[in-house]
Structures are given as structure tokens and as C-alpha cells.
Predict the 3D structure of the following.
Amino acid sequence: MRPKKLPKMKGEEIEELLDSENICRIAFRGDVYPYMAPFQYVLHKGALYFHFTNYGRKMRFLEMDSNVCVGIERLEPDLSEYRFVALSGALERVDDAQERSEALSLLSEAGKEGLSQNFLAAHGFDTEESWSALSDNAPLVVYKLSHFTDVVGLRSPHKY
């Protein structure tokens, strides 16, 4: 018996998945081994935006190499249905004040709608703070992935 390949997702399926989820994993090129961590993201104008604290391994690895792979998935608990996308490219720091403000506002709104305030602790905020802590004054850096060098989208054999 030969294994069957998983069906590839179409462009509109990939965009729907990217637009409907809000947590991803980013794999950074590490010192010896890759380093992967979960992050909140938002899809806006064809780019994925992320907010990071300005410390930790990820920042050191980004200084060495901005090339990353971003993984986004939707899984049923029993894995009867699944979709996943891997996007490769280089992260770009968002230094434009208006673009940064817009990205943080979108990330804040997405957080209010679908994430626990407890997730704010991953960004150095007290869990008692609201998602409005992601404001222009927040001590966060914003990055985006806007140019994808490779996109792979696969799904379970059964359609959602």
C-alpha cells in the first residue's frame, strides 16, 4: 500500500484559515536548533502582524536572521478534520507609527474577542489589565510577514 498525499488547500482556503485563527507558531533559526514559540497574530492587508516583547531568545535570533516559518492550524480534538498552513519569509519590524498603531489596535480587538486576558502575561502585562494595554504606548515591538517565499497548505481528506 502506498501512502496518499494530503490534499493541498486552495488559495481561498488558506486565506480563510489565516483570517479565522489568531494563534500561530513561529520557528526561528536558532544557534544550533530551531526555536519555536506561540504568538498572537492578525491578518491585515495580506500581511501577518505580530506583537513581541523586546527581549528573549526570539529577539536575539531575529537579530541574527529574520527568516522564519510561521505555522497556523485548525484541528478537531479527535483529528477527524484538520488544516494547516506553513508560511516562510522574513519578518520585518514595523517602525512606521501609523502602521504600528493600526496593527496593535487590530491585535487588541482580536484579543478582546477571542483570547483570555491571562495571555497578556506572555507580554509582560498583569493579567488584570485589559486588552487595551496593547496601545501605542505599549512596550512592544510589532513585526510583520508580508512577503511569503513559500506557502504550503494541507488539509484532511474530508472538507470542513
In short: The CA atoms of residues 42 and 107 lie 6 Å apart.
